[in-house]
Design goal:
- By secondary structure, the protein is an alpha+beta fold.
- Strands 1, 4, 5, 8, 9 and 10 form a six-stranded mixed β-sheet that branches. A five-stranded mixed β-sheet has the order 3-2-11-6-7.
- It contains four helices and eleven strands.
- The protein is elongated.
- 15% of the residues lie in helices and 27% in strands.
- It has one domain: Sulfite Oxidase, Chain A, domain 2 (Alpha-Beta Complex).
- The structure holds the ligand Nc1nc2c(c(=O)[nH]1)N[C@H]1C(S)=C(S)[C@@H](COP(=O)(O)O)O[C@H]1N2 and molybdenum atom.
- The site of ligand MTE has 18 residues, from loops.
- It comes from Oceanibaculum indicum P24.
- It holds the Pfam family Oxidored_molyb.
- This is Sulfite oxidase.
- InterPro entries: OxRdtase_Mopterin-bd_dom, OxRdtase_Mopterin-bd_sf.
Amino acid sequence: MPQDGDSGGDIFGPIKRKLIETKQKWARDGRLLTGETASPAKRKLPPGQREVKNWPVLDLGSHPVVTQKEWKLSVTGLVENPVSWDWATLMAQPVFEDTSDMHCVTAWSRFDNRWEGVSARHLLSVVKPKPEAKFVILKCYDGYATNIPLSAFDDADVLLATKWEGKAITREHGGPVRLILPKLYLWKSAKWLRDIRFVDRDAPGFWEVRGYHNNGDPWKEERYG
Ligand SMILES: Nc1nc2c(c(=O)[nH]1)N[C@H]1C(S)=C(S)[C@@H](COP(=O)(O)O)O[C@H]1N2
Ligand SMILES: [Mo]
């Protein structure tokens, strides 16, 4: 008696029968199965990183008190239009929103952070760096500094962030304004941002002169240099 799904081999002929047998063997062998799943737990992290759900605080230990009223950002150096922005001027710029990941050199990563602020590319369109400008030096209200190639600063996911997950960035995380540069380790994302300077020669910052890598790409594991 023919079973369901068995429409009687004879009408197919020997060639088709061979084909079906081959496919059946593949099915038994699990051919083309990767053993991977699309589960979120398998989402790719840079080498040596582990995922955290909280947001750790890391800095030199002093959390400067900078109110929105006191906050000022100067953008100088090799640019056509140097600017000094106060809070009201910053708020008058186009709002930029983006979701990105954070990778800290101390091996934690946090996926899908929703940021709001002013995009680096908008800032660049306002100040217009000169062709000689190759690096960006960031200085902060706690005395911290870090250096970034202009090519990394000039990216679609870089911003002067004022909000995280819809709320003002807290003082401990660098509020009122910090940089967010998702493609490099988080030490490049300067908190309590005060000064951005465009220069032609690189000037390693606080951690870069203390053994951290000058560039800091997590996917290349550029932790120490
Ligand atoms: N102004 C300033 N920015 C800073 C630092 C700092 O000490 N001062 N630490 C850096 C380092 S080493 C890290 S890992 C991140 C931590 O940011 P978070 O505390 O918001 O997680 O800030 C970076 N930006
Ligand atoms: Mo760090």
